[in-house]
Specification:
The structure holds two protein chains of two kinds.
Chain A lengths: L4 H19 L1 H4 L8 H17 L2 E3 L4 H9 L10 H18 L6 H13 L6 H16 L8
Chain B lengths: L4 E4 L6 E4 L13 H11 L5 H22 L6 E3 H20 L4 H10 L2 H28 L7 H17 L26 H19 L4 H11 L10 H14 L11 H11 L4 H18 L5 H24 L14
Antiparallel strand pairs in B: 1-2
Classes of the chains: A mainly alpha, B mainly alpha.
Chain lengths: 148, 337
Amino acid sequence: MSLDLMLFTSSLIQKQAVSEIMRLNETTGRHGLVLTEQQAIELVNTRSQSLSSTLRIEFGGGVIDKIITVFCDSPHIVPGNYAETLNELIEIFYYYKNETLDIISDHNLMKIMKTFFDGECQGSLELLKSRELNKIARLYKGEWCPEA
Amino acid sequence: MIGEYREREVDGVGNIEKHSKIKAEQLSQEFYFQSLLQEAHVKDAISDGELEAVQMQCLKLMAENTERYNKGRSSSIRVETAQAIMASNFYTIGLYLKSRTDPASALEELKREPIAWLYEQGLHVTKQKLRVARYLYLAVVKTRIQTPNYSYNETINNGIKIFFQQYNPDFEAHETPAFIDYQLAVPVTGWAGVEYMIYYLHHLHMENQFCARFDSTVIHRIMQGYHISYQDLLINIFEQVLQNALGRLVLDKDILTLNLSPSDIGELKTALHNKSQESIYSLFQWAADMILEFLALTDQSFKSYVYATLPDMAARIHSAAINGTLQTIFVPAAPAS
């Protein structure tokens, strides 16, 4: 038996994360948005792959439950696209966590994502990722300066 | 050592059988918590369910401490940072569990108490140990040898001070942030964090107290006899002082002068001629006892420390006696300048 970090990531984190996501159905159910256990497992897998590619680690539900809580009242998320949208939002979140050099806190990054998703992007994940968030990342990296 | 014992319930409903299978000497001092769990798992002293419960609580503690580390700004961190925080958590929990009577009691408490509570207790133990380390540091400063040796002075003046400035019990409890150039006669091994520092300071304090029984000028001339520029060498002063004192005692001469002339060394060569390493060890063990009694260093810790130097010393003396190089171990003092 080893208490090495990798042992934790292989099974216990997943187990804990899935149960935390399922608990959130109580809250999101009010908006008609509910995840099955299989969909919760898919979200955790998406998060694992994103974390792995960015050499990061997270415990428990981490940002998944925060993303669910922040976006569940979006007018552009319906039961038909709920799971798929969450998967993409998770990928976008970790991608831009790195692209903004870890400078923006989780809370603020999610707030920015929600504001643009509901507003300028009108529910388009493509516009959110490729246009709005891209501008912000370039701003943080000093590659872009908004016109006066 | 934990023996086996059984208890029988008074009402006879069933037996409560408690096997204490975990031996203290099998546990790592540096990774106590991990090794306790490992041994318990191997010896079936912890069930799979209990082990998983401990692991889940450790994960929860990791999540909470990660949040504290990130100051709530981010729930994800780099993998190497997470590994360091985990090692720190385990070290802290281990510090508390080590303070229990024996591994069996530690394991029972581990199974019974929440990990978060064990961790908090560990933080209290860490603070206590830091106080002990500070006390020992002051004792080292008070008893320091007056010597120009750079590594000795730099370690005491700055290298150890850095530890008290930079030691981070919250996220790096297992680390020992210090620049320790001065090597002890008996190195500290198998310890980490604040415990490493306590043992280092304790050993250094004992070495200082031993050397304080001798005139510092005499010590300086002996060290110059070893090497004229010994101030620039990474060399242990106590060990040389002890060696010369042992040599003088074997020759039934006053040990306080420490000096061994070429003719003294010749006498030692005769005394050690054809002696096995084991009999050299026994001879110097007897000599060490005499010296410690003479110097009124009667605490058992001094005896243990000096004895710990003797196996290697006996081996070197044995080899030098055969090769005719005893003067590299029992050094003549440099002339007074």
